[in-house]
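In pairs, describe these two lines:
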Amino acid sequence: RSSASGNGNVGYKFMPYFGLEAGYSYYAQTTIKGAGGTKAGFDKHYSFDLAGKGIVPITDSGFELFAKVGVARISSQVTLKNAATAAAIGLTSGSHNKTGIYLGLGGQYYVMPDLAIVVQWQRAQGSSQTGTFDLYTAGLSFIVS
């Protein structure tokens, strides 16, 4: 499902070509429907990630490209809305967690030495119980000296 979601990261840039980041992502709530479109319940998702970040600065242009590889912990919380519809499709409430691979690709442009505009794609690999999530984001990056 596509909808408003969010992501925040903190990290440390060890050198111009490598950093380490930890992040939190909140994904759009999913509505689970039964026969006839009746709402059976809702599924909320979020993840925590830890990743190494490889960085390729584009010569004196202010642009950088990056790739992230790491691990993500996805959590899924199912809440029932209509017990009869949920029972008819075999849906039960509860929490599911999965640790999986985390990947990301993106680029950033420094508008000032300590401020960049960032665009990225990230994927948290889950399971059939939690789902796998792709997130496209645009935001800002601040460097604190």
Summary: The longest helix spans residues 83-88. The CA atoms of residues 30 and 43 lie 5 Å apart. The first strand starts at residue 6 and ends at 15.
